Amino acid sequence: xxxxLPWLVAxxxxxxxxxxxxxGKTNSAELAKLQLQVxxxxxxxxxxxxxxxxxLPADELERLRRDNQELIRLRGEVGMIxxxxxxxxxxxxxxxxxxxxxxxxxxxxxxxxxxxNQRLLGTVQxxxxxxxxxxxxxxxxxxxxxxQQWALENNKAGEAVPKKEDLLPYFPEQKSPACPxxxxxxxxxxxxxxxxxxxxxxxxxxx
Length: 207
Description:
Radius of gyration: 66 Å
Strand content: under 5%
Structural class: mainly alpha
Distance between the termini: 196 Å
Number of strands: 2
Strand order of the largest sheet: 1-2
Number of helices: 3
């Protein structure tokens, strides 16, 4: 019995020591957990403090609200301006199409007028040429009549060729007629018609 008692005391002591060690280990874990929570709390406090620093004053918030409202208003005006610009572009395109159509019509009318003017000009030129030819032929008749009268009064044969000065007394105001077409007259012999250098200005051929 005396021999077992020391062993029993030792066993009890070991049990108590083990219990104390286990409780100490548990307390250390709890302490570490508490320290971690404290650190997280401090971190949150620091973040809250930083957030408080970044919070804008009331007047700054009001200014930002006004700026935002002004921005919205400006966006609306820009939208209206874009719509007006699109309408103006459509109107301009329509006007350009109309102008092109009018220009084409005017071009066609101009071409028609040019064609008509050319036709009228040709008619006028033909009329002038015919008038000049008629006047020249009338001059040739006067020259031929003067030649015949000169030959009769001066007893000239049919082969005689008068000079220009010989025929002046037989013309009105003693002026030799001139071709209205800038032609040159050739008197020729008494028995031949006088001639003009302009084509078409000629007396009918003698039968």
